[in-house]
User: Fold this.
Amino acid sequence: MTPTQTDRAHLVRITGSLAEIEPASAAFLYELVRVGERGLLGEVVRIEGERATAQIYEDTTGLRLGEPAELTGESLVAELGPGLLGAVLDGVGRPLPRVAEVSGDLLQPGVHLPSLDPDRAWKFEARLQPGTEVSGGDVLGVVAETPGIEHRVLVPPELAGRLAALESGSFKVGEPIGRLADDTPLYLAHRWPVRRPRPYARRLPTDLPFVTGQRIMDLLFPVAEGGSVAVPGGFGTGKTVIEQSLAKYASADVIVYIGCGERGNEMAEVLDEFPRLDDPRTGGSLMDRSILVVNTSNMPVAARESSVYLGITIAEYYRDMGYRVAVMADSLSRWAEALRELGSRLQEMPGEEGYPTYLGNRMAKYFERAGRVTAAGTPERSGALTFIAAISPPGGDFSEPVTQAALRVTGGLWALDPALAHSRQFPAVDWQTSYSLYADACAPWFEREVAEDWEAVRNRLFALLDRERDLREIAGLIGAESMQDEDRLLLEAAALIRELVLGQNAFDERDALSPLAKSYALAALAEEFHEQAGAAVRSGRALEDLDLGAVRQALNAVRYASPEGLDERVAEARKAIAHSIGKNSVGEGGA
Ligand SMILES: Nc1ncnc2c1ncn2[C@@H]1O[C@H](COP(=O)(O)OP(=O)(O)OP(=O)(O)O)[C@@H](O)[C@H]1O
Ligand SMILES: [Mg+2]
Assistant:
């Protein structure tokens, strides 16, 4: 190599999306590079002596040996500031014009587009006076970002000093809004490396529920705010419908939706459908409080791998403002597959099923970014990042490495069952295998806010469903007709519960969201029916004499009740239950 060549980093080898660069002894891991005449973006993934190997995010077709390479001195960063809400970004943060993306008209390689619109001016209202000592996370002021969300402009983490100037006014993201005494300028936006968790003051316990509005989740498998849940499910079991229902109805202020390289047409669907979802809270567009990070499978694998980090960094940023953020990844399997592909190109030693041996470790570090925290800085505020991770295990087999790695680090499992989906029992969450490690910690909240006997109702529901499983086995052997009335009654009650309590139609607007009061009432009523009918049957009444149809009808009326009409429907259902059992409907459940 001649001395002139060594002065300047250049390409010495290209294999697929891997580019090897020399000389590059000063490179660091995950440093961003720009390679070739077109300046294609990539990330350093290996350093050996003088040589750095970079993973290129863009199509490397046409790249030639000897073309220049630039080490940027920076790792992949997220641009964090007003204008993220409503944005659709690719895995490295470039805004995707939705239409172009859907029509397959991708960005040209090498095009650098900032995530935030550099030309848009924002009305900034300062909240601090010059002279104040500030440090990372302090709220400098606010911007009305979208109708529902006030954007709190934060002092970037790790910055501190005396505020020398700060002004209210109209600013673009590239214009200083003030400065520190040491002349460090302050802006509406700042940058943060996506692979590094953003700092916070301290973690808070995960004892408040992330209310989903989905009965089976809220009643049986609640996730805490700041918790995480894995949602593995084979093809067509309802992962995407769950993620979208949660995006609309769950108790989150901000939604980050990460579509990490599902099949191309599916991402097109997300891009097409998501922006059209309306926000049940405001009547406006759900995009006003959402950010989409999407990659289609025709994007290079490295961009797919980075997209999950970009998404979670944006989520942490809104958490730091004091918001409850929900991150939906659909699906994490595509991320793991990207990791596998990158590993194999680097000829790393493969682990189980070809996934890199560090899959579990990466996954754990990633899931750790979920949490409920007190944010750094003043004024004091808490925020939460709740993580809902859809997983697509090949063949629906949960013993595969990605599902298993996720289960080692999440606090909850909503296991989607193809048999349930097949019988159109939706959400197809299998109540036998799903679990939540947050249920105990969240129980006091439910008992305080919804009903004193919330936990008791929940436990009875589990007991009833367990008993049903056993009875079904027996029924399969001896036939339901030869079973005792009490057991047959239980099967009837369980059928009601499956249909009306656990089942929920995402496409019926009276049913898609179930407020906690309704979820509780339905479960409690079904149990009341089982209990009272059981007493009647034990005292000699024939099961055939009970008017089950009337009970079903009454519970259905509760299921579809409007919030205002709920109490009345519940009272009617109580009467209908008493009546169907043949008791007088006067009095509240008297003997
Ligand atoms: N809660 C629900 N209510 C009514 N129908 C549902 C519900 N959940 C799922 N479905 C039905 O199941 C179909 C498949 O759901 P969905 O697309 O979410 O599955 P998926 O697991 O994301 O599939 P894929 O593996 O293809 O990504 C939906 O189109 C819908 O018909
Ligand atoms: Mg899907």
Notes: The chain has four domains: 3-75, 114-191, 208-441, 454-581.
